[in-house]
Design a protein that fits this description.
This protein is of the alpha+beta class. The protein has 17 helices and 11 strands. The protein is about 55% helix and about 15% strand. Keywords: Hydrolase, Protease, Thiol protease.
Length: about 550
């Protein structure tokens, strides 16, 4: 025999006891050949898979075949678990895990091969493949046992060890398959029994079954309705939250008090103006010093986007105050003459007219109206938020109960009116009315001209008519009047104009005439109004018809 060196191949370690080395080259060679065979099997398996992919998909197996497949899966799971358990105990078993995976590949390949060659005996092919797998696994462990136990180097010992492993795997596989099949059979039996009992119950109690199904349908419907109601409720809560003041009561009341303090200081300045200034004559043209607290708090909340504190808005209060109240002083100097008695050199007295400057002070205070300020200092988004707060008064009508908006929005809402159906036969008017009524209840916002910012009177009329076929852009009340032709016999859909509703030259207000002495206009809020009231009659100017 040829002598071989005891040095193991690179990457391998020779095992032994008491420093004695054993020859392991033949075993390593066998493992290497086994690995090559498994790799070759994997290549054949891949080719088999490609061929199978081109074939028609197999029919869905019946219940018995499905149970057998489940049992096979359980067997594989058991074998995987055993090998992984050994792998945790000894790192050397990783090689065995490779052999196991290769054996599985060979098993799957063998199954496909048998199915294609002998389709009438699939159970025999599966049994043969399983046997091959068990044999390969047992063979590997037998070789590993021979390496780790040199005293068992005899062929008989290795054969007995492999035989014992093979029988152990077969026994475990049979037990697992039986348990799985039994569980599946029990499940099928229970399902069949339930179906039989349900069918028998329906036959015995047909009316009761229908009632039960009806109740179930009602429950499902109620659940669906409740789900919809919850969605609507969530939306409603979100809308309420968005339109509610977020600042603390102390901060809001403090801001109102601070603004009132600025107004009180302005009033004291005017009251003492003649004592604190040195002019010969004074003329005062003063607007009333007043504001609505809801307008103030809504503006601050919109500008500061929700929650704020008094200290954070003191600068804003000063800015708003400066925009609302415009105090001007105009001093006119006149040269006047007065008679002065003088004495000449001879001691005679005589009178002369001596010129002098006479100072006349004209003091004007304009209250621009705080509700007119937002459009000049807010972005469209802020203006939209301001309108939202005003439409609900921040959901805090108790905060400033003396506000005039409480009466207009809550306790004394505008009158309701129903336009006669016969007027809606005019399609143009019906379209105008449908669009205009979308915005009932929207607050009056000076300069507003869209639903997002709310409206003023002319912005409301311009928007509605531009949505209904006209295209004249954004016009003021006077501009709308100039566009219309005058009519003494108004009909629904015409415009009605007013003067003197506030201090401005020309037409000051406009509304949509809806017939029978009523109009729909952007008051505060947008609402119907009876033109026969004394107020509107005193300011009525003309009716007009858009071309």
């Amino acid at each position: 025999m040829e002598n071989r060196q005891n040095k193991p191949p690179e990457g391998e370690v020779a095992s032994g006891h008491g420093g004695q080395k054993f020859h392991t080259d033949s075993e390593q060679a066998k493992l290497h050949k086994s690995k090559l065979r498994m790799e070759s099997r994997e290549e054949r398996l891949n080719k088999a898979r490609e061929r199978l992919a081109k074939q028609k998909p197999p029919k869905k197996p019946g219940p018995i075949k499905r149970i057998a497949r489940i049992a096979g899966h359980e067997t594989h799971a058991f074998l995987h678990g055993k090998v992984y358990q050994e792998e945790r105990d000894n790192v050397g078993v990783e090689g065995g895990h490779f052999v196991e995976r290769s054996g599985e590949a060979a098993l799957h390949y063998g199954r496909h091969k048998v199915r294609r060659a002998i389709r009438e005996h699939p159970s025999k092919a599966a049994a043969r493949a399983e046997s091959r797998y068990i044999k390969a696994t047992a063979d590997y462990h037998s070789r590993k046992f021979a390496q780790e136990q040199p005293e068992a180097q005899s062929a008989a010992a290795r054969l007995w060890h492999r035989h014992k492993l093979k029988r152990e795997y077969q026994r475990k596989a049979r037990e697992t398959a039986k348990q799985t099949a039994k569980a599946a059979e029990q499940t099928v039996s229970a399902t069949e029994r339930f179906v039989r009992e349900a069918a028998a119950f329906v036959k015995r109690h047909p009316v009761g079954t229908l009632l039960a199904l009806g109740c179930l349908l009602v429950v499902l419907t109620l659940q669906s309705c409740m789900s919809s109601m919850v969605s609507v409720g969530n939306s409603t809560l979100a809308a309420i939250a968005a339109s509610t003041y977020k600042a603390e009561d102390a901060d809001m009341l403090g801001a109102e008090a601070a603004y009132c303090a600025l107004e009180d200081e302005l009033q004291r300045c005017l009251d003492t103006y003649t004592r604190t200034h040195d002019y010969d004559e004074y003329h005062f043209d003063l607007d009333t010093i007043e504001h609505d607290p809801y307008v103030l708090i809504s503006m601050i909340s919109a500008l500061h986007e929700g929650a704020w504190t008094l200290d954070e808005v003191r600068g804003t209060l000063q800015d708003l105050f400066g925009r609302q109240y415009i105090l001007t002083e105009d001093v006119v100097v006149e040269v006047r003459y007065r008679t002065v008695t003088r004495t000449d050199s001879e001691g005679n007295n005589y009178d002369v007219e001596v010129p002098y400057n006479y100072y006349i002070c004209y003091v004007t205070l304009e209250n621009f109206n705080l509700s007119h300020v937002p459009v000049y200092m807010m972005s469209e988004e802020q203006l939209s938020m301001y309108a939202l707060y005003m439409s609900t008064l921040g959901n805090r009508p108790d905060l400033f109960p003396s506000s005039g908006y409480i009466g207009k929005y809550i306790t004394n809402r505008p009158p309701e009116h129903e336009v006669p159906e016969s007027y809606l036969d005019d399609e143009t008017f019906a379209t105008i009315l449908k669009e205009a009524e979308k915005y009932l209840g929207f607050p009056y916002v000076w300069g507003g001209s869209s639903p997002s910012t709310s409206f003023d009177c002319s912005g409301f009329v311009s928007y509605v008519y531009n949505q209904c076929g006209w295209d004249f852009g954004r016009l003021g009340a006077q501009g709308l009047y100039n566009t219309c032709s005058r009519t003494s016999s108004p009909r629904p859909g015409d415009l009605v104009f007013f003067v003197g509703t506030y201090d401005t030259a020309g037409v000051s207000h406009v509304g949509i005439y809806v017939g029978d002495g009523w109009m729909l206009h952007c008051g505060d809020p947008i609402s119907y109004a009876n033109l026969n009231s004394s107020y509107w009659q005193s300011h009525l100017y003309a009716y007009g018809r858009l071309p």
